[in-house]
Amino acid sequence: MVSLSWLMVLSAAIFAIGVAGFLTRRNILVMFMSIELMLNAVNLAFVSLGSRMGTMDGQVIVFFVMTVAAAEAAVGLAIIISIFRSRETVHADDLTLLRW
Amino acid sequence: MNVEFAALALILVFPALGVLFNMFLGPRLGRKAVNVAGPGVMFLSFAVATVAFLRILAMPEGSALYFTLWRWIEAGQFHVELGLRVDALSAVMVMVVTGVGSFIHLYSVGYMAHDEDYARFFTYLNLFAFSMLILVLADNLLMMFVGWEGVGLCSYLLIGFWYTNPEFAYNGRKAFIVNRIGDAGFILGILTLLSALARHGVWTLDFAELKAHASMIGPSAATAAGLLLFLGATGKSAQIPLYVWLPDAMVGPTPVSALIHAATMVTAGVYMVARLNFMYMLAPDAMAVVATVGALTAFFAGTIAIVQLDIKRVLAYSTVSQLGYMFLGVGSGAFAAGVFHLMTHAFFKGLLFLCAGSVIHGLEGEQDMNKMGALRHHMPITFWTMLIATLAITAVPGFSGYFSKDLILEGAYESGHFRLWLLGAITAGITGLYMFRLIFMTFFGESRVEPDKLHHVHESPPVMTIPLIVLAVLAAVGGWVGLPDGLLWGDAFARFLAPVVGDFKPAVEASPAMLSAVATGLGGIGILLAYVCYLRMPGVPALVAWRAKGLYDLLLEKYRIDELYDLVVTRPLFFFSNQILNRGVDRMVIDGAANGAGLAVETGGELARRVETGNVQHYALVYLLGAIAIVAYYLYLVIR
Amino acid sequence: MPAGLFWFLAALSVLSALGVVVQRNPVHCLLSLVLTLLAIAVLFIGQDAVVVGFLQAIVYAGAIMVLFLFVIWLLNLPAESRPTGHLALRFFGAVAVAALMAELLVFALPARLQIRAAAHAAGYGSIEALSQTLFSEYLIAFEVTSVLLLVAVIGAVALARRTTAAEMQERGAADKAEIEKAA
């Protein structure tokens, strides 16, 4: 069995990549995907820790995270569609109405 | 023995009622009503004052009548009542104020007969009387100061009575402001005195209590307080250095000059020193300053009066000079002599001003003596009364001024101030010169009156001449209450005042007769000089003026003191006020701070709003930074 | 799970994650994401979390990613042509991410993670065990989540629906009325 540390490191790595992607990409959909990456990294961490501790709590939380991620993806994509309908763009630089 | 006498309050109430009546009902009820009310309340006040005076005479020595109105200030141990007190000294003062004041009010009825603003005039005049009476009747220093300020205010109101003329209004302001400078000294003097006693646990400003605890006032505190209070007196009583307002105050109506600037207000300083004699006796240095300033002022003002052409200005400088005499008297320790001269001066100077007003009134506004002359034929009553007053002021033996001035000079000599005595004696000569110059130029010689005015020259109506006559009688015989010792009843006046102001103890023995002879002789020389120059050889003055042009101009320009003050005080003050305080402090610092606060907020907002870029990723970056911080915190906890 | 398998899956997931972030064409990003998800699903299974592993593959990779894909096709998005982000953002972003990574690594050190390994009970990771915990301790959360899903569905439908012409007219009239009221 691989030590817990490496699993945590992996989780951190994927999370970091997700953050970098979110900050860097301009396409809204790819930003969304980066969010999903982050969520998954966290899921991995939860499962690993739960497995080490021998309880099911980690997995239950992952269950919930997945559910919420699904709901969030649905609503978020609906929003993106509606934005696209009015603005014809999904480039983040064009979507800055709430600026000063 | 102190007896309560509630009617004392009436002395104040009558003028107060006069103020209210003239202010609110006067304009509506008309000239006749005001003419009755204005002088009327003064005469009523005089009547009550007379009753009080007679009672004092009947009571044993050192008695006083008192009445407390109410307690004004109550602060722990310190309390101040509004109380009235008539002892020998204030009895004299209140008689002078109400007596001479009543007749001047009566005179004003005639003088202001053609002025539309009669109601306002009598309101102010009554208000002045009210304030002055507060001053003299006060039983404590703080209440006296209230009256002190009140008369200053009324002086301003009355000098600038014809306020539509900007110069008159300016002179009114000048009087008030110069007075205020003195008042600053007065307040500091009060505080010094108060704190000196407070150190011993005595918190009072009541005159009787101050006198009782006089020994607790140390000489240094007494000197300091004495000098500071005297500074106030130089303002109010027009001595060097704060006399400059009085000559310019002559732009007010002549009854005002008579009442305020001759008989009453200007004497407040002398009264204050006399009242606080017990304190001044502890501070010989302060008294020396008082006497010296008095003598110098007397001489100084006299020299200016010699060359003045405006009849009222001569009298104004004469007043300054005579006040100097009074301070010489009280400064030498001869308090009774100073107050005596105060009384006689009220008679003859008040009369002089009223006569001058009569002359001006008869000449329809002319005040330049170069345009007068030979008026004794046209205005006999005015002439004779003015002559009597002049004889009094020049200390011709027998008249009131003779006795009082001699007493002062005697006091100066016998207290050791020889040089000051000499100065006073020389000033007596100068007084004779300028006063008789005035008489000769106005009433004698060739008539230099302008032709169109000559037609209308007339004697004043009885309402004006009766006060002249009354005051003339007083100026003539008023001095007989203070005869030299040994003659008839002797110095009754000084004996009367002695319980309040103490006896005068000579330090140097001298022969009163010899001193009197010297002073009177010098006075006679002055009169002779005036006779020669202005009656016999009228060309002489012009010749002298041309020969000594520099000196003449200096005197005519009143030593350019006003200009000096302007240069040394006024301009630097304005400069400081405008450039430094206005531009510098007010605009840059204070406004800068206020505006700066706003600007800071505005700028802060400008900068802060740039955070809202509308770009989601920027917000996410901030999130991330926050998250890093939180994790770092846990890291820190874990590592420790 | 065998160490070799772990390392392989780890490398795979990291590389595909990088692929998500780096590639230009959104469809390619999506496919990389799917690969990452599947790798993680296998990691789950490797740790005896069988149910969530399968759920990950079926629900996450299967449903959610397909949803993404449909949206990409619906919007007919081209590949990104413009460069990605401001320089400042990239720079600070890089710094911040590095800092985060560093911090997390510190926490991941073996000395920190002092958790005693507990043996897995029989049936660990099975659906019985999951539902056992889910419907007892986390019951309320479960119920709330179902409400959440309902709300999400309604919301998504409402947001994504085309407004009919009649509704557009209605909206226009309402706006005009408000403007006149304010004036």
How is this structure best summarized?
The complex is a heterotrimer of chains A (100), B (640) and C (183). Chain B is mainly alpha-helical and 640 residues long. Chain B is built from 26 helices and 3 strands.
Task: Give an overview of the whole structure.
The complex is a heterotrimer of chains A (100), B (640) and C (183). Chain A has 100 residues and is mainly α. Chain A has one domain: Helix Hairpins. Chain A has helices spanning 4-24, 28-53, 57-87. The mean pLDDT of chain A is 87. Chain B is mostly helical. Chain B has two domains: 2-556, no CATH class; 610-640. Chain B is built from 26 helices and three strands. Chain B has a three-stranded mixed β-sheet with strand order 1-2-3. In chain B, helix 14 packs across helix 17 (400-414). Chain B is globular. The mean pLDDT of chain B is 88. With 183 residues, chain C is mainly alpha-helical. Chain C has two domains: 1-84, Four Helix Bundle (Hemerythrin (Met), subunit A), CATH 1.20.120; 138-183, no CATH class. In chain C, helix 1 (3-22) runs antiparallel to helix 2 (26-46) and helix 2 packs antiparallel against helix 3 (50-75). Chain C is extended and about 70 Å long. The model of chain C has no long low-confidence stretch (mean pLDDT 86). Chains in contact: A-B, A-C, B-C.
Structural key phrases:
heterotrimer, A: 100 residues, mainly alpha, Helix Hairpins, 3 helices, 78% helix, 0% strand, B: 640 residues, 2 domains, 3-stranded mixed beta sheet, 26 helices, 3 strands, globular
Number of domains of chain A: 1
In whole angstroms, the N-to-C terminal distance of chain A is 54 Å
Unreliable segments of 5+ consecutive residues of chain A? none
Counting helices, strands and paired strands, the structural category of chain B is mainly alpha
CATH architecture designation of chain A: Orthogonal Bundle
Main sheet strand line-up of chain B: 1-2-3
